[in-house]
Design brief:
The chain is of the alpha+beta class. It has helices at residues 3-27, 47-50, 60-65, 219-254; strands spanning 37-38, 41-43, 69-71, 75-76, 83-85, 92-93, 99-106, 112-117, 122-124, 130-132, 137-138, 154-156, 161-164, 167-171, 174-177, 183-186, 190-193, 199-201, 208-209, 211-213.
């Protein structure tokens, strides 16, 4: 086995993975309230340590080379994006990193699931319900849908209250999640959670009415990170080629037996 070949291959694969993640972030640079994924790498232990081999059969030189790299845990960067004024009375932005709107998402298999989002582009459905632009119910502080009367002006306050003709209709549920690592991405800016409900419903939330949150992707730094990952992948691919040439020379030149 050519140990160096495997080390280079691990570097090429993991950096291609990083490149794919950064490319997906760049593709969502204009997606409202998008939260970028952050890839990580971790060092792999040498084979003797990873397999728990006895010291008398381990190879010190190979152990000094290390075991290459593996893809580490990917996490979501929940840093709040800049807010952009729209003037739409049903738009709302959350300026705090760890706060979310509660929504109910219909499960294709039947039933509804409670989910979270930071995308505050709301609208009134045909049946009067306040929904997201993707059709998910926006919930009040009691996890109930919000019903708006037809033909009446709507206003969202800085505390998340919904007024129609000056009368309070409901308050949009804004919840804080202390440990955002519990959240996982789903489609259309929706976040799911497993296990215990992580929500802490706020009595006095901070909402920016008439604004939406921009994508959290910084196009310059993300492009630079993608280029760096691409260069690292190319470098490891070149090392694979060099080692292939070395093996060819070893087999066909140094290993040739002359009469």
């Amino acid at each position: 086995m050519n140990y160096g070949l495997y080390l280079s291959a691990s570097g090429a694969m993991t950096n291609h993975y990083r490149q794919d993640v950064y490319a997906n972030n760049l593709a969502n640079v204009s997606t409202t309230a998008f939260k970028p994924d952050m890839p990580t790498l971790r060092q792999r232990a040498p084979e003797a340590i990873e397999d728990g081999q006895r010291s008398d059969i381990s190879h010190r030189l190979l152990e000094r080379l290390g075991g290459g790299v593996l893809a580490g845990r990917q996490h979501i960067d929940f840093t709040a994006g800049t807010v952009q004024r729209t003037g739409n009375p049903l738009d709302a932005a959350l300026p705090d990193d760890d706060t979310f709107f509660a929504v109910r998402v219909s499960d294709p298999a039947g039933g509804d699931e409670l989910r979270l989002t930071r995308d505050g582009r709301f609208t009134r459905a045909a049946d009067g319900q306040l929904v997201t632009t993707t059709g998910h119910q926006v919930l009040d502080v009691d996890d109930q849908p919000i019903i708006l009367r037809d033909g009446h002006a709507v206003q969202i306050t800085g505390g998340g209250e919904i007024l129609q003709d000056g009368q309070r209709v409901a308050r949009i549920q804004v919840a804080r999640v202390a440990d955002t690592a519990q959240l996982t991405k789903q489609a259309a800016n929706i976040f799911a959670f497993d296990g215990a409900d992580p929500r802490q419903i706020l009595d006095q939330p901070h909402v920016e009415p008439g604004f939406i949150e921009a994508s959290g992707v910084n196009p310059i730094t993300t492009l630079m990170s993608m280029i760096a990952a691409s260069k690292a992948a190319i470098g490891n691919t070149e090392l694979i080629r060099y080692q292939d040439v070395m093996m060819d020379q070893a087999v066909n030149t140094l290993g040739r037996v002359t009469a």
